[in-house]
Amino acid sequence: MNTSERRYDLDWLRVLAILFVFVYHSTRFFNLEDWEVKNPVRYEWVEVWNSFAWEWMMPIIFVISGASLFYAVGKTGAGKFVKDKVLRLLVPYLVAVFTHATLQVYLNWTTHGVFSGSYFQFLPMYFAEVFAAGNGPLFIFDLWQMHLWYLLWLFIFTLLTYPLMRWLKGSGRKVLSAMGSFLALPGAVYLLALPTVLLMAFADPDSPVMAEKAAGWSQVIYLWLLFSGFLVISAERIQASIKRLRWLSLGMGVVAFGIVLYFVITERVPAYGTPLYALGLGLAGFSSWCWILAYFGLAMKYLDFRKPVLQYANEAVLPFYILHQSVLICVGYFIVQWPIPDVLKWATILVTSFAIIMALYEYLIRRINILRFLFGMKVLKQAAPATAISAQPAPKKI
């Protein structure tokens, strides 16, 4: 493949996936599960929607990230690559943890009766708790990360997989080509779901391998999904197979999720080690991969085009993700208390939060270099001053 080409389908997928995360989080005020801030009335049907989103939302984002790494690995040396990931992922993560993300914890504590007082009275307690929970500087590995955990774990996974990916694109390209030939065989791309299915079905959920979860999925599974994204984008033959199988993938995803939904609706939680547990969790893992392949196939077929709005949105994706949950929770904290219908509350939270995030991005983050740096964006180069041209006598005509 020509790795210098721009993949507009991946850009569209990235933008749409982050927008979906935003919509998903806007509904968490109303589902049954606890969250930072909750609406007085909660709804079971919202839990069904959340279960559908859980199936593929964060998994597909890691697959997209892995696919993007295929184009990034090897373009520069290792030092520059690591520096880029530090600036794009680690810096905005740390900045957010020390700034606006504190609002999420403050509102959580005040609405859950943990703390009573002003925001500025809360801050010393927050930082004391964070450092105590993480044993000093290692607090970054603690789950005070809120939605920001994605940035941290993507940074860690990228560094872990970089040597292997660099080898596969270099001296190991024959191995990568052989893997591509195998995965391009009819239906072979579904085998990439096997590690996830086996871990979900048979690994002890309390074991060290599976206990470290974020958004309901083990970090080990996220690591595999990242590498899977690298693999599926490495060969046009695999992508052609994914495109051909898009409707089959969608159909299998719907059927598998329907069975998983049965467990959710009936609230049956099978005991670990039973056949029902292996069936339910294994199908959840397979359903997730089917949804991912379906969306990738549909994007390859219908979203491989360029629009002016795409370039703008693609640049805004990272700041939007970093800000979205903090803004949603702050806006929702006030609106859930209003005496209006709940559906109107949700619509108001969604529209108001989106407007605030985009205003912050457009008029502050996007235009101010220091904010671009703090939010993981490339700093704009200052225009070189125009060079004064000294007046020269006009040449004489001959």
Overview features:
398 residues, mainly alpha, two-stranded antiparallel ribbon, globular
What does it look like?
The protein has 16 helices and two strands. By secondary structure, the protein is mainly alpha-helical. Strands 1-2 form a two-stranded antiparallel sheet.
Task: List unreliable stretches of 5+ residues.
Answer: 135-144, 384-398
In sequence order, what are the helices and strands, one letter per element?
Answer: HHHHHHHHHEEHHHHHHH
Report the C-alpha radius of gyration, rounded: 24 Å
The computed structural class is mainly alpha
Main sheet: which strands, in order across?
Answer: 1-2
Q: Helical segment tally?
A: 16
Distance between the termini: 58 Å
Number of strands: 2
- The rough form would be described as globular
- Biggest sheet overview: 2 strands, antiparallel
What integer is the average pLDDT? 89
Beta fraction: under 5%
Brief summary of the model shown:
The protein has helices spanning 8-27, 44-72, 78-98, 101-111, 119-133, 149-169, 173-183, 194-202, 208-211, 219-232, 236-244, 246-266, 275-302, 308-335, 342-365, 369-374; strands at 213-214, 217-218. With 398 residues, the chain is mostly helical.
Protein topology:
Elements: H1 8-27, H2 44-72, H3 78-98, H4 101-111, H5 119-133, H6 149-169, H7 173-183, H8 194-202, H9 208-211, E1 213-214, E2 217-218, H10 219-232, H11 236-244, H12 246-266, H13 275-302, H14 308-335, H15 342-365, H16 369-374
